[in-house]
Amino acid sequence: MIDVPTAALQLRQRVFEPMKGVFVGKDGIIDLMGVALAAGENLFLLGPPGTAKTALVHEMTRRLGAKSFDYLLTRFTEPNELFGPFDIRRLREGELVTNTAGMLPEADVVFLDELLNANSAILNGLLMVLNERVFRRGAETRAVPALMVVGASNQLPEDEALRALFDRFLLRVRCGPVTDEQLGAVLAAGWVMGRRE
């Protein structure tokens, strides 16, 4: 049986507290990422380009040692790009099965950048993943192991069709630029991060 308090303490000490030393001025966002992960909820990051939205998710995933999937959505993104293509060998045998290797249905942490660019074809597939952690395509249905899904955007949804998608993100936070006073600390942290890679 999992000792929840011990697991929570280890997550805080090994993942989220060290991240606060790397990402200047992002402590509140990092804490909310921990809440989302512990609760199995979806998290929405709102902010302009260059405010570390992607870097925060990548660093958390790296520290967790989790299997990740991230994708930059456009209006032209097709379901195959997120969920995987149909397996051609199985299709020749008359079966419609998706090859999900390395794709969203197999990820522990999912990051969807510019989430609100999702078109209706993507929207239908994502709603079940976000709400029920289930991937469904035709007769095919499988559980999605995602511990958390993070969506990011530079703006709030204007299109009414995107409201259902946005509503699946119970936790929402603004990710803004650092203050001028924090710029030196950001440069120092970036230097340390760059040397690590």
In short:
By secondary structure, the chain is α/β, with parallel strands linked by helices.
Structural overview:
The model has no long low-confidence stretch (mean pLDDT 88). By secondary structure, the protein is an alpha/beta fold. The longest helix has 19 residues, at 4-22. It has 8 helices and 7 strands, in the order ααβαβααβαβββαβα. Helix 1 packs antiparallel against helix 2 and helix 1 packs across helix 3 (53-64). The radius of gyration is 18 Å and the shape is globular.
Helix and strand arrangement:
Elements (H helix, E strand, L loop, with lengths): L3 H19 L4 H13 L3 E4 L6 H12 L3 E5 L6 H5 L4 H5 L16 E5 L6 H13 L1 E4 L2 E4 L4 E6 L9 H5 L3 E4 L8 H14 L1
Parallel strand pairs: 1-6, 1-7, 2-3, 3-6
Antiparallel strand pairs: 4-5
Helix pairs in contact: 1-2, 1-3
Order of helices and strands: HHEHEHHEHEEEHEH
Low-pLDDT ranges = none
Work out the oligomeric state of the chains in this entry.
single chain
Number of helices: 8
| Distance, first to last CA | 36 Å
Cα radius of gyration in angstroms: 18 Å
Strand content: 15-25%
Strand order of the largest sheet: 2-3-6-1-7
Percent of residues in helices comes to: 40-55%
Q: What gross morphology would you assign? A: globular
